[in-house]
Amino acid sequence: MKSDVVLPQPYLLFLGDTTEPGYAKTAFGLRDWAGGRCVGEYAIDGATVVTGLARMTPEQAAASGAKAIVIGVANSGGFIPATWWPALVRAMEAGLDVVSGMHARLRDIDVLREAAARLGRRLIDVREPPSAIPIATGKPRTGKRLLTLGTDCALGKKYTALALTHAFVARGIDATFRATGQTGILIAGGGIPMDAVVADFAAGAAEMLSPDAAEHHWDVIEGQGSLFHPAYAGVSLALLHGSQPDVIVACHEAGRERVLGHPAYALPSIEETIDLALRLGARTNPRIRCGGVGLNTSRLEETAALRLLASESDRLGLPVADPMRGGASFERLVDACLS
């Protein structure tokens, strides 16, 4: 996102006609990490996903102080279907600007561009990388870096990075969350949308995102995709090489067995994910190590979740924690990352 863009807040979260919770990760991320900037949610016919925020029309949201409607969906391919256009026009008619993190550009859709011009509303695309991204050099940089990576997309890499950043800061450690996707950028107010960067410059963008820093400063970098993903492995590898992490945290969702959106592919194991990341990451940082595992147990009740965290930690010989549950297991993960 260009640094001179100031996002209009607070937000109304738009869920479209989404039925897959994994594709509504932008809405959930804003609810969980920027809830004070969200007044409610808005969906159209066919939607089954809800965030738990108040259901509002654009008119009600504007009356409640909302300044923009944010597309809370990150579907496969990042497109804005025609079925959404009338709802987005209605939001503009209610006085809201439109903010999107999709690959498709709002301004390239005639209906939206014309409505914005007629109504004096802004169309803001945050999935725009900065200009003049350099080719990666591979040179070591000062400071410390942690990268979250995963067995798949949309399973907790961003949440884990945010939770670790907050935990580091709570311990008096100088730490910065580095956003690499549209949701993280909306939460943090800046970052680089890695999947919108031309491939040859992607590792350079990761270097640019986490520059030289003070000796004890930590950049906690949001991972993207998966090194095993049939479509998105490239952005994951560029982040790994470019960020040169000292520490990685592997992320997985308990119970997920197939790649989201690509059910013909089985997920790799956590062990395979860690092993491949360490082997590939050693190319640009020979000192890379794994701090532990962030395990998304949101589908489990408390007792079963805690039992699984303990058994996986014993099996892997690493701290395993659900960052959203916190507790002693998460503190052990934080300790291991900082050790």
What features would you describe in this structure?
The protein is α/β, with parallel strands linked by helices. The chain is 33% helix and 18% strand. It contains 11 helices and 13 strands. It has helices at 25-33, 58-63, 85-93, 110-119, 157-170, 182-188, 202-209, 233-243, 270-281, 302-316, 327-338; strands at 11-16, 38-43, 68-71, 97-100, 123-125, 144-150, 175-178, 218-221, 247-253, 258-259, 262-266, 289-296, 320-321. The strands form 3 sheets. The chain has a 6-stranded parallel β-sheet with strand order 7-8-6-9-12-13, sandwiched between helices. Helix 1 runs parallel beside helix 6 (182-188). The mean pLDDT is 95.
